[in-house]
Every structure is written in structure tokens, then in C-alpha cells.
């Protein structure tokens, strides 16, 4: 319920398959949350779309749920902001009405156009402008070029091309604007100059006037229109504030706002958000670089296709007894697996794994690489293989950290998110292998938290991000490296790197 003198903000995280919402007060306390999923339209191959009205309708429902559940009066909610998926775009007419379904970032129809763009500009020139080392069908520019060729009627009618965050801001305020972090992966933004890249726009056949105005994150756009206030249940005095790309919002929501900090998500895959002072656009780094939601900063985004997924694969194929025990006792099956791994000494008596079940991401970027167990000996049991998998994922993370360190990019703290961050054993092995402190947040919904903090910045509830993070982002657990283990792992890491190098030519045979 309302408390006298308390004001509130709402954060919305517009994800690929769901929208989450959070209501936070001016003391950084989470009042309530809500979530609603939706199903993407796919053909099982390259097409991936969604009716754009779903984004707006679900956002409105989420906000109404937050207001109703909390009992907060709408006039006490001062602002709303967004965390959003990148690349997904919606062509709209002059009234902001969608001309077709949103083309989701996962849509792969623009492979031919990606090759055309790469051939036109060259990989180094694209990296130097956009921070993207690879030209993929994921990026918005490739999809717009596809639209030009394959849906010329829609292309000719498009007044603006909007990302999901841009679309929601327009529906809230009637203003066409975007922000640097979410625009960074379109291939249309010059991340150094922070302006639209004219040569790219010319090549794909659109003008700067067909894109929204560029802003920083956490900037008030305007108050809600009467229509938006009616649809959401908010007040016409509520401010809409520019948000951030979901990884950048997640960094803010975990207090990763200074150079030297890194947010690390170990879910099915692995992704890092490494905050840096200056853009890293040397093609040799092979790491995506994007504008941070923190004004003036950037972040690198090392990634791997398989991380926690490797342990899930092992569980599904070889751990039926543990799954049955979990079903009978209510215990978490992964706790049962890591319990076996804990009984095995660090380094697993020389057993090494390469966790590349679907090729490698950074820093090797080798789609031909496969998973490997090396050093199997008599007497090794299931616990050895489980520990080897966990160590392999952590060694892969260290390899990315060491690669960045070799280019003068140093990380001092790892903020761990995702499923693995809830397991004490994973976190300790990660600290031991990397030699870095690992911190887990009390609240794991960091992207939508970041959106709330940006709403608070834009409305003046929070003085700045430093203050906002201090009062709202609470550490859950901290894990310091055990130096005896770290010393052992230094040798283990060298063997891990050597094992990959030894097989690199083998995969080409």
C-alpha cells in the first residue's frame, strides 16, 4: 500500500518470449513483480516474428497487474522505463502503427544480405564503426535490406523503423526516440561518434529521418499520453524514461557500472558484460563492443554457445538415478550432481574437458570445435566427470578474461548471474579458477531492476546511478578465491589452452 512521502517507478523488461515488470519505491525496495509469456511465430527454420501489438498489450497488462497487486495510487508512480531485447524491429507508418509483424532478432532470413553488407564494407570497417566483429542475419540492417528486396510495399510505406524499446516509448509518449545501448547492435550506429552511420543507411536504402532520435539512457522523454494512461492505469503525469539494451540494463541492475567490473551469466549459454572506458573496435579482439547504459562507457560481450547446457546434457544422458532421487525427495537434481563433484579434488586428477558442444564462441569463434574429455583413467567415476564439466566452463571463462587482459582490459570483480550463480560450488570453483572475487546479487532479476533504476534517474528519484545501485542492489553472497586452489588451476588452465590448440587442426580434417 501507499506510504506517505513515498514515490515509485516501474521497470519493464521486454524479452524475446516474455515481458517482466517490477514496481520499486524511492528507497530501492522491490514492491511487486509480474511476468507474462507469449509464443513467437516461427516456421521451424528461418522465420521468427511476432505481432507487434502483443508487446504493447502485454506491457499494459503487466503495468495494470503491478498497480493492482501493490495497491499503489497511479499518481504516486513517477516514471516508467525499459530493458529490451536488441535487433528486433518494427516498421511503422506516420501514426506509429505497425505495417507488418515485428521481425525478431532470431529470424535468419537475411543471410544473403549479411554477406552483401560484409562484402560492401569489409569486416574491419564494420567493426571500427559499429563494434560488431561479425556480420550476421541477427543485426537489424541486414533485416531491413531483406525487407527492401522481399516486401517492397512495406518498405516504401515505412515512416520509421523502431526497435522494441522505441515502439513502447512511442506508445507511451507519442515520441520517436531510441538510446545508444539498444541501437548498438543494429549495424546502423556509429558507436564512436554516437550517430547514425550514413553510409550504411544509404546502402540499405533508408534515411536518418526514418530512424528515431538518439538519446542517452535514463533521460525523460515525456509524460504519458491520455491513451497510454488509460491503457496502463498510470497517470498522465507519469514520465517515460529511456531505458537500455537488456545486457546493459542487467549490468546496472547488478551494480556493474565501473570499468573493471564484469557481469557474467551462466545459463544454458555464457555471456559476459565487461565494462570498459573506451570503445574496443580493433578487429583482432573479435569481441562485440557496444555502448553502455552508463553515459560515456562501453561494454564488451564475450559469449559461448554452451555452458550450463553441458551439465544439463550430462544429467539427461547419464544421471537417471539422480533425477529419480530428486523427484522422490524434492531435492534439486543439480545439487545432487555438484555434491558428487565436491568429493573430487580440484583439477580432477588431470581430467580435462572442452565444453564446446555446439562450436566455440569467443575467443576462438570456431564452429567446427566439439566437446572433448581428455585424461580419463581407471577409478574415475561420475563425480569426476561432473567436476570436469564445471571446471571446463570456468576455464573457458578464464580464457576470455586472459584474452582481454592481453589487450589491456582488466576485470577486478565478477558479478555472477543465471542458473549456476545459485549454486555455491559453481561460484567457488569460478573464483578459484579465475582468481577473482565472485559476487552474486540478492535479487537476480537484474535487467528489470536496471530499468527501474533508469526510471528513477530520469525522474530524479535517484541522484545518480552510484546512489541508485548503492541503495537498491544488495549483494547475496561473495566468494573469494582459495589461493592454494588457484595456484593448482594455473597449471590446469595452461593444459586446457594447450588441449584446444592441439586439436584446432584436427577439426579441419
Q: Which key terms come to mind for this protein?
A:
509 residues; alpha+beta; 8-stranded mixed sheet; 7-stranded mixed sheet; 39% helix; 21% strand; Xylulokinase; Carb_kinase_FGGY; kinase; Carb_kinase_FGGY_CS; ATPase_NBD
Structural commentary:
One of its GO terms (biological process) is carbohydrate metabolic process. GO terms for molecular function: kinase activity; phosphotransferase activity, alcohol group as acceptor. Pfam families: FGGY_C, FGGY_N. It comes from Mariniphaga sediminis. Belongs to the FGGY kinase family. The chain has 509 residues and is an alpha+beta fold. It has 2 domains: 8-247, ATPase, nucleotide binding domain (Nucleotidyltransferase, domain 5); 258-441 and 474-509, Nucleotidyltransferase, domain 5 (2-Layer Sandwich), CATH 3.30.420.40. 39% of the residues lie in helices and 21% in strands. The chain contains 18 helices and 26 strands. The strands form 7 sheets. Strands 17, 18, 19, 20, 21, 24, 25 and 26 form an 8-stranded mixed beta sheet that branches. Strands 1, 2, 3, 6, 14, 15 and 16 form a 7-stranded mixed beta sheet that branches. A 3-stranded antiparallel beta sheet has the order 4-5-8. A hairpin with a 5-residue loop joins strand 4 (41-42) and strand 5 (48-50). The protein is globular. It starts with 7 loop residues before the first strand and ends in a 6-residue tail after the last helix. The relative contact order is 0.12. The mean pLDDT is 94.
Amino acid at each position: 500500500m501507499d506510504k506517505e512521502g513515498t514515490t515509485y517507478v516501474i521497470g519493464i523488461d521486454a524479452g524475446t518470449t516474455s515481458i517482466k515488470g517490477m514496481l520499486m519505491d524511492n528507497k530501492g525496495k522491490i514492491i511487486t513483480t509480474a511476468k507474462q509469456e507469449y509464443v513467437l511465430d516461427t516456421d521451424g527454420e528461418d522465420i521468427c516474428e511476432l505481432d507487434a501489438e502483443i508487446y504493447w498489450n502485454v506491457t499494459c497488462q503487466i503495468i495494470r497487474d503491478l498497480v493492482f497487486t501493490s495497491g499503489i495510487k497511479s499518481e504516486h508512480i513517477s516514471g516508467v522505463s525499459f530493458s529490451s531485447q536488441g535487433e528486433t524491429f518494427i516498421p511503422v507508418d506516420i501514426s506509429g502503427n505497425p505495417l507488418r509483424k515485428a521481425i525478431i532478432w532470431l529470424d535468419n532470413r537475411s543471410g544473403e544480405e549479411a554477406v552483401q553488407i560484409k562484402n560492401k564494407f569489409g569486416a574491419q570497417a564494420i567493426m571500427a564503426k559499429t563494434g560488431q566483429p561479425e556480420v550476421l542475419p541477427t543485426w537489424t540492417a541486414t533485416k531491413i535490406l531483406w525487407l527492401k528486396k522481399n516486401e517492397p510495399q512495406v518498405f516504401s510505406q515505412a515512416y520509421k523503423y523502431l526497435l522494441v524499446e522505441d515502439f513502447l516509448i512511442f506508445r507511451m509518449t507519442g515520441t520517436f526516440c531510441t538510446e545508444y545501448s539498444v541501437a548498438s547492435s543494429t549495424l546502423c550506429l556509429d558507436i564512436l561518434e554516437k550517430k547514425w552511420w550514413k553510409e550504411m543507411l544509404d546502402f540499405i536504402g533508408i534515411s536518418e529521418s526514418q530512424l528515431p532520435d538518439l538519446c542517452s539512457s535514463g533521460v525523460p522523454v515525456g509524460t504519458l499520453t491520455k491513451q497510454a494512461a488509460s491503457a496502463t492505469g498510470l497517470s498522465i503525469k507519469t514520465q517515460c524514461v529511456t531505458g537500455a539494451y537488456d545486457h546493459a540494463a542487467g549490468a546496472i541492475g547488478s551494480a556493474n557500472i565501473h570499468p573493471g567490473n564484469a557481469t557474467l551469466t551462466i545459463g544454458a549459454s555464457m555471456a559476459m558484460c565487461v565494462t570498459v572506458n573506451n570503445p574496443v573496435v580493433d578487429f583482432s579482439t573479435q569481441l562485440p563492443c557496444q555502448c553502455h547504459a552508463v553515459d560515456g562507457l562501453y561494454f564488451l560481450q564475450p559469449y559461448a554457445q554452451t555452458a550450463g547446457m553441458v551439465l544439463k546434457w550430462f544429467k539427461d544422458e547419464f544421471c537417471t538415478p539422480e533425477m529419480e532421487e530428486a523427484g522422490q525427495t524434492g531435492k534439486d537434481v543439480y545439487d545432487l550432481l555438484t555434491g558428487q563433484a565436491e568429493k573430487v579434488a580440484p583439477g580432477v586428477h588431470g581430467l580435462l574437458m572442452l565444453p564446446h558442444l555446439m562450436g566455440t564462441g569467443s575467443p576462438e569463434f570456431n564452429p567446427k570445435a566439439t566437446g572433448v574429455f581428455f585424461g580419463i583413467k581407471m577409478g574415475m567415476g561420475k563425480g569426476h566427470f561432473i567436476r570436469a564439466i564445471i571446471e571446463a566452463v570456468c576455464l573457458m571463462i578464464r580464457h576470455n578474461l586472459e584474452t582481454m587482459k592481453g589487450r589491456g582490459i582488466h576485470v577486478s570483480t565478477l558479478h555472477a548471474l543465471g542458473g549456476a550463480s545459485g549454486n555455491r560450488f559453481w561460484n567457488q570453483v569460478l573464483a578459484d579458477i579465475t582468481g577473482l572475487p565472485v559476487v552474486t546479487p540478492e535479487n537476480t532479476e537484474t535487467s528489470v531492476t536496471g530499468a527501474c533504476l533508469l526510471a528513477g534517474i530520469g525522474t530524479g528519484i535517484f541522484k545518480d546511478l552510484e546512489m541508485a545501485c548503492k541503495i537498491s542492489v544488495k549483494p547475496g553472497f561473495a566468494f573469494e578465491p582459495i589461493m592454494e586452489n588457484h595456484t593448482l588451476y594455473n597449471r590446469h588452465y595452461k593444459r586446457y589452452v594447450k588441449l584446444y590448440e592441439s586439436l584446432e587442426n584436427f577439426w579441419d580434417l
